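User: Sequence in, structure out. Go.
Assistant: Echoing your sequence, followed by the structure tokens.
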Amino acid sequence: MAKVLALVDRDPRDGTVLRSACALLTLARRFGEPVAVVGGDRPDAEAIRTLGRFGAVEVWCLAEAGAALGSGPADQPAAPAPALGSEPDPDPATDTDLLHHLAARLHPAAILIPATHRGQETAARLAVRLDSGIITNAVDVLPGPDGGPVAIQRCLAGSYLVESSVVRGTPVITVRPEAAVPEPRPVTPVVRTAGVEPAKIPRARIVASPEIVADRPGLDHADIVVAGGRGIGSRAAFAVLAEVADALGAAVAGSHTAAELGWVPREARVGLTGKTVQPRLYLACGVSGSVRHRAGMQGAKTVVAIGDDPQAPIFKLADLGVVGDVRAILPALLAEIRSRKTPDGGPAESTESDQTHSTDS
């Protein structure tokens, strides 16, 4: 069976394997043997166990700094991992060099890469290096009639799905984080190192990676997202929305308009021009639900909408709707959540309210 390379996305703070990497391995199993590729710092034992749990038959990482092809024993079982941070930070050029080397060595059926900013740049560089076709922002990857990968992409702000395949070279596919639910299939992976000769081309150098310190969950991986739109009305009212999010242990997001008004940072914008999220609960407050906003949140498991316009498009998508003045409802909701907190600060209980009505999803 052909191998499928999957570039592993990890938390830069502690090296933890992210959910998106486990999803890539799950997709890779559909049409080949998953091979996890880890750029940057060596994965520790826990990261390797996680990759094996989701089916990685091999885990490839960079050799010791300075070990280039022909200069030492490369492509051998890996030595114990050094402490995180002892090797250079990963960057698209380094990832490209490693994937290019492994593509030439392993002749994979496809190369799957997370659709992050770093991943998109890596994929573009790699496709040029391999002279291969590239598919970006896939929301699913399925085996085609010939056993090769067929990528599913959204177009026209998510209104349609299209099937795409690569007809030349090794398919390079970037995959959105909501593309698959990680499914365990435990194996014991073989861990190997690759001594990679850096390409002799000019490259950018990362001089700083400022860490954004926040008390709230990250938007990309939050179970609950509380989002506000123009209907919130003001920055002061948005502060109440943030309190609701904190009471729920949720991430705060905003529509394109809310970000343009400066009520939320641009990196917290959800939609076609911002983040794509897939939480268990998406609470949309004062959000009309434009096509470009829905493109970023329609994968949520449950959508609750609060707004004063019953004809707003968001109510057609919502599982539960509350029609009314969001500026009056949010303080009442906050008080109710706080009153139902357990003594140890646990989550609020789920209750029904006669102020809500169901809408068609």
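User: And one key feature?
Assistant: The first strand starts at residue 3 and ends at 7.
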